[in-house]
Amino acid sequence: MLELNNLHVAIGGNEILKGIDLKINAGEVHAIMGPNGSGKSTLASVLAGREEYEVTSGEVLFQGENLLELDAETRAREGLFLAFQYPVEIPGVGNTYFLRTALNAVREHRGQAPLDAMDFLQLVKEKADVVKLDPSLLKRAVNEGFSGGEKKRNEIFHMAVLEPKLAILDETDSGLDIDALRIVSEGVNSLRDSERSFIVITHYQRLLDHIIPDFVHVLKDGRIVESGGRELALELEARGYDWLDSKAAVETAR
Amino acid sequence: MQIGPPGRQVALSPSPQLPLSLLNAEISIQEPGNDPTSSLVLLGARPLSGNEVHMTDSTTTLEEFANREYEHGFVTDVEQETFPPGLNEDVVRAISAKKNEPDWLTQWRLKAFRHWQTMEEPSWPKVHYEPIDYQAISYFAAPKKLLDSLDEVDPEILTTYKKLGIPLDEQKALAGVAVDAVFDSVSVATTYKDKLAEKGIIFCSFSEAVQDHPELIKKHLGSVVPHTDNFFAALNSAVFSDGSFVYIPKGVRCPMELSTYFRINASNTGQFERTLIVADEDAQVSYLEGCTAPQRDENQLHAAVVELVALDRANIKYSTVQNWYPGDKETGKGGIFNFVTKRGVCGEKSKISWTQVETGSAITWKYPSVILKGDKSIGEFYSVALTAGRQQADTGTKMVHLGKDTSSTIISKGISAGKGQNSYRGLVKVTKSADNARNFSQCDSMLIGSQCGAHTFPYIEVRNPTAQVEHEATTSKIGEDQIFYCNQRGLSTEDAVTMIVNGFCKEVFKELPMEFAVEAQKLLGVSLEGSVG
Ligand SMILES: Nc1ncnc2c1ncn2[C@@H]1O[C@H](COP(=O)(O)OP(=O)(O)OP(=O)(O)O)[C@@H](O)[C@H]1O
Ligand SMILES: [Mg+2]
Questions:
Q1: Which end of chain B is more exposed for a tag (fewer CB within 10 A), N or C?
Q2: Residue ranges of A 44-83 with Cβ closer than 8 A to chain B
Q3: What b/e readout covers B323-352, taking b as 16+ CB neighbours within 10 angstroms?
Q4: Which atom of ligand 1 is nearest to the CA of A203?
Q5: Bridge partners of residue A221, in order along the sequence
């Protein structure tokens, strides 16, 4: 599904990602953890096609294709979805209208006919139920004046409607109350299947109690310094990130 | 990059039946009023601090704002009668004679001309242009063949209107919209006239009204915008050529949208229309104005005057969708100078609402205004002004509260892209007599790219302590973040910009008649073409 080989990324001449290797197969859930500023959101943005970031070397394959050649909208239409850490407000543009335009752009790319208003509303209703999205948020402008938690929930709602092949969730859990966390996780779990992969970026192992990852990676200072199963998350919870430094140092010394 | 190539449906809405060009109309009512700054000083009123925002930041991909293509730039080849350039009393008399006007009107024009000669062109607007040589302009141009019925209209002209999407032939005419078409200085056709006449509604060219309804013209002409009002209004009063006249009798609700469509064709001529709308007691009317012009290298002057009279409990809604040729986007060469005076007077419990979508012209200078004379009258101003390429706009409104319990609303949305400069200039004046007057003003500016500018100049004069006046202003830059967010959901950058800009203008678009709102959204998309890198 997704393969990163020695990916280096810089912004304004500053190297932020310093050689990332990662392979994600269809159906897998990978969690990425790591301290603030380690480059998690940068990784997500680069994958989604944000242009400010400069890929200085390395490659990224998405479904066997060179992802880095595609512009952001094409990546989205090909089935890559990013749930933003900080979802953006678009005043005056209705959430439902926005989503319908988005879905039809994706459908057009896939050679499908646009969904008519009735079918779309039916779909929206169904998906809004899955994440228990307050129906009034459908009528409001995209994210405008939404609470932090409402914005996150709206992201998952967009994901549910767009049905991507690879979804990257950037700290979708932060700002959610305990019930919302459970509901959003259930929403994600309901979308899990053998064809769809997830990258879940989080600071809290708690989320991984709900969304059980196949792999956990630790990103530190632009490198993946440790990878393991879900038990790695528990260890991080208990010990923090510092012990990885000494471990990495030892490895480098060898 | 294009945002919605012409003919393509841009995002938001179902495809309209109405031609884009209709919307391109400009309905501006300019109140080229007195210099608000100086009147401010005289009255000792308190100006709000003007905000000015210049974009300097340039890290975005929105940088380039350029290649809008102007769709209506063609020229019609038609036999014209044109006066030689130049302006003096004889020219004024000749115009009046051409139109077979009564002596009082000739005298009125001359009075205006004499007054105009004593006036100076205003220099206070925040726009820059080479001085206009008023002697180099021709003040009258008309297609040679004159017309008593549609059959006599030069087929070239009919073709022009067809090309613009406005069939004048009643069989094919726009359902629910009566159109008065003005080609250069002359009204060529008015549709649905007879049907309207059944209700006693008069909708005809100004020249015809002078012949057929002289008493109404004499009574109202200059009653709202006197011939002395300002430089451009005085010029218009001296040389106005044609325009539309509307009278809605007492208690009548006009059953269809009325619309005037202006087309400048001749080169080197000024266009000076004069529009007068009178809604008698308890009458209602919604009127829309549109304009386009060929693409020419010289600037062309358009100095119109619109007067609205809303008698007691009447309601006039005046919408403009202006799409004059904006000039070359790179060099700024050519384009229309749009200096318009628009003003309405409200009787008791009446309402005047101006809605304008200004996307064309090299320079726009207009301040559609409302004099709230009657108690409990209401004035509204909803505006979207877009400047791209090298366009400059200085536009806004004046709300003058004279009556008790009067209220006014101002919603202004300025969008600047390319090297466009966009200024909002508005006056809210509450006189001593206006107990419990209320005003709410909201002026929002949006910047696209890094080389454009937005400026806000609100003036508030309050002479009555019971007044409530509120002013809000915001400036935002169309964000990379917003664009990226849309891209990430699968939308192209062009669609994203159109969507964001339309969202920004929503409060104004919802005031437009439905069909026109759809067109206005498309027009914005087309106007923004090439504004994203
Ligand atoms: N546009 C930018 N300009 C300059 N520096 C940037 C930019 N974007 C990211 N950075 C820097 O790159 C580093 C990684 O940022 P990133 O947002 O990827 O971290 P993160 O791992 O997501 O952190 P957090 O856990 O706080 O969300 C930080 O030092 C940040 O300041
Ligand atoms: Mg982050």
A1: C
A2: 48-52, 71-73, 75-77, 81-82
A3: bbbbbbbeebebbbbbbbbbbbbbbbbbbb
A4: 25
A5: none
Spatial separation of the C-alpha atoms in residues B237 and B227, rounded to whole Å: 6
Whose C-alpha lies nearest to ligand 1, atom 25?
A: A36
In degrees and rounded to multiples of 5, residue A16 shows phi and psi of -110, -45
The structure tokens listed for B28 are 């501006």
Task: Report the residue of B58, B474, B484 to disrupt the A interface, i.e. the one with the largest count of A CBs within 10 Å.
Answer: B484
Question: What does each C-alpha distance from B39 to A46, B44, B102, B262, B462 come to in angstroms?
Answer: 56, 8, 36, 33, 13
What span, in angstroms and rounded, lies between the C-alpha atoms of B339 and B364?
6
Q: Is A155 helix (H, G, I), strand (E, B) or coil?
A: helix
- Does the CB of A178 have a partner CB in chain B at under 8 Å? no
Confidence at residue B477, expressed as pLDDT on a 0 to 100 scale? 79
Block residue for tokens 């210099």: B35
pLDDT in tens, A89-120: 999 999 999 999 999 999 999 999 998 888 89
Least CB–CB distance from B487: residue in A72, A81, A101: A72
Residue A164 in contact with partner chain B when CB distance is under 8 A: no
- Ligand 1, residues A7, A9, A15, A16: which to mutate, most atoms within 8 A of Cβ? A16
Indicate if the pLDDT at residue B199 is higher than 80.
yes
For the CA of A44, the closest atom of ligand 1 is 18
Element (H, E) at B518: helix B514-527
| Res. B369: pLDDT tops 80 | yes
CA distance B469 to B131: 38
Report the relative pairing of strands B284-292 and B257-263 from DSSP bridges.
parallel
Nearest CA, atom 18, ligand 1: A39
Judge: B488–A92 Cβ closer than 8 Å, yes or no. Answer: no
Nearest CA in chain A to B14: A117
Q: How far is the CA of A197 from the centre of ligand 1 (A)?
A: 24
A9, with CB counted inside 10 A (0-12, 13-18, 19+), is buried
**CA nearest to B38, candidates B127, B124, B126:** B124
Q: Give the closest of B11, B479, B504 to A92, CB-based.
A: B504
Task: Give the 3-state secondary structure of residue B364.
Answer: strand
Taking only the tens place, the pLDDT of each residue in A167-199 is: 999 999 988 888 889 988 998 899 999 999 999
Q: Which residues of A touch B445 (CB under 8 A)?
A: none
Q: Is B177 helix (H, G, I), strand (E, B) or coil?
A: strand
ipTM summary value: 0.95
Amino acid at B324: W
| Ligand having the closest approach to the CA of A10 | 1
Torsion of CA B153, B154, B155, B161, to 10 degrees: -70
Query: Which stretches within B206-316 are classed as H helix?
Result: 206-212, 214-220, 231-239
Q: Which of A40, A171, A199 to mutate to test the pocket of ligand 1 (most atoms within 8 A of CB)?
A: A40
Residues 6+ apart with CB under 8 A from B106: B92, B93, B96, B97
